[in-house]
């Protein structure tokens, strides 16, 4: 990796004198423009990058991993990271990366016009590209009155019938962080205690959680909206449905797929171009690739999402998920949530 990085830095230094004339990242010898991405969002990402390359001629090199893995890698690589753009499947990890000084603020009218304020960091260090809801899922064969709040999953009628993702997963941590924000730590703890008292079946895959409902291993669960959309696309008869939680209150928990430019980017111009494309021309391609709701409210969601109906979403918590992540991790641990 190092020789490559040095080559790029040398190319960038050579460019500096002629940057005004060039206006881009390609050098005068005609080398192709590239951007390197670390991505925590995997599903369907390659066709999205291909569409960007077809539109702009910029080649995308990418490395996939989990959000926390990629953040640790950025820390370890420091100024030598090959990553120009980092993409996550969770708001907390990108905010923690920003807090660690790993991201560069971006001033872009295109981004500010496309992405609502509550879906980008206060310092414009990251931007949400799509929204996902962590919602109550239930068996349409065995459940007639599904829970309508996160707290209701702690009702004893769900004892032994509840499936949850483990506490190590960012999706669980961000949901609990939003509960701490909205309800206070004591009430959030009481809810998590009630889930744990129901002896949940912990499954570290939302797809497997939905399959467990279909198979009768649990009746109710928490999972992200797009996993049901994907499962229904493959298996339309899957007997699982969404119960939108907190519709009389703060709304269903929102998490986001995000992207930000690394502070050490060797190809910042190409990275900004990719980020802006994902937020505008590529917004629908990016969102539809994983059945997520576009971050730009003016872009139409996929048909299957329209079929899920209208709902109230907790947009106000998104920017706070990183700050409250350590509190959520500690709460889950103290509650004995696996
Ligand atoms: Fe996911």
Describe the secondary structure blueprint for this structure.
Blueprint lengths: L1 H15 L2 H4 L11 E6 L5 H12 L2 E6 L2 H11 L7 E4 L2 H9 L3 E2 L4 H6 L12 E13 L22 E3 L5 H14 L1 H13 L3 E2 L3 H10 L4 E5 H10 L5 E4 L8 E11 L5 H12 L3 H7 L3 E2 L8 H5 L5 E2 L10 H10 L4
Parallel strand pairs: 1-2, 1-3, 6-7, 6-8, 10-12
Antiparallel strand pairs: 3-10, 4-10, 5-8, 5-9, 5-10, 5-11
Bound molecules: fe (iii) ion (FE).
Question: How many domains make up the 3D coordinates?
Answer: 2
Alpha plus pi helix count: 14
The CATH homology group name of the largest domain: Periplasmic binding protein-like II
**Run of helices and strands:** HHEHEHEHEHEEHHEHEHEEHHEHEH
> The CATH topology of the largest domain is what?
D-Maltodextrin-Binding Protein, domain 2
> Which percent range describes the beta-strand content?
15-25%
Helix content: 40-55%
Distance between the termini: 38 Å
Largest beta sheet, briefly? Answer: 12 strands, mixed
Tell me the structural class: alpha/beta
**What average pLDDT do the residues reach?**
92
Give the gist of this structure.
This protein has 338 residues and is an alpha/beta fold. The protein is built from 14 helices and twelve strands. Bound molecules: fe (iii) ion (FE).
């Amino acid at each position: 990796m190092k020789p490559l990085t040095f080559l790029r830095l040398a190319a960038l230094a050579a460019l500096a004198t002629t940057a005004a004339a060039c206006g881009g990242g390609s050098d005068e010898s005609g080398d192709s423009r590239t951007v390197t991405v670390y991505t925590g969002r995997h599903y369907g990402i390659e066709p999205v990058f291909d569409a960007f390359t077809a539109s702009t001629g910029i080649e995308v090199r990418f490395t996939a991993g989990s959000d926390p893995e990629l953040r640790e890698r950025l820390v370890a690589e420091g100024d030598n990271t090959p990553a120009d753009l980092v993409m996550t499947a969770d708001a907390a990890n990108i905010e923690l990366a920003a807090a660690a000084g790993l991201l560069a603020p971006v001033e872009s009218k295109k981004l500010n016009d496309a992405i609502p304020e509550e879906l980008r960091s206060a310092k414009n260090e990251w931007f949400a590209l799509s929204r996902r809801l962590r919602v109550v899922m239930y068996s349409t064969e065995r459940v007639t009155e599904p829970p309508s709040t996160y707290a209701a999953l702690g009702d004893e009628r769900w004892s032994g019938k509840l499936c949850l993702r483990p506490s190590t997963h960012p999706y669980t941590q961000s949901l609990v962080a939003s509960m701490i924000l909205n309800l206070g730590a004591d009430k959030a703890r009481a809810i998590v205690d009630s889930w744990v008292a129901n002896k949940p079946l912990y499954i570290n895959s939302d797809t497997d959680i939905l399959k467990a409902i279909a198979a009768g291993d649990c009746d109710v669960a928490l999972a992200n909206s797009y996993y049901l959309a994907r499962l229904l696309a493959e298996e339309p008869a899957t007997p699982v449905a969404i119960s939108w939680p907190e519709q009389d209150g703060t709304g269903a928990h929102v998490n986001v797929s995000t992207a930000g430019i690394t502070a050490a980017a060797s190809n910042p111009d190409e990275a900004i171009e990719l980020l802006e494309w994902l937020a505008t021309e590529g917004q629908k391609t990016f969102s539809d690739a994983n059945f997520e709701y576009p971050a730009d409210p003016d872009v139409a969601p996929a048909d299957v999402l329209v079929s899920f109906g209208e709902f109230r979403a907790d947009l106000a918590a998104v920017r706070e998920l990183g700050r409250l992540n350590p509190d959520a991790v500690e709460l889950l641990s103290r509650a004995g949530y696996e």
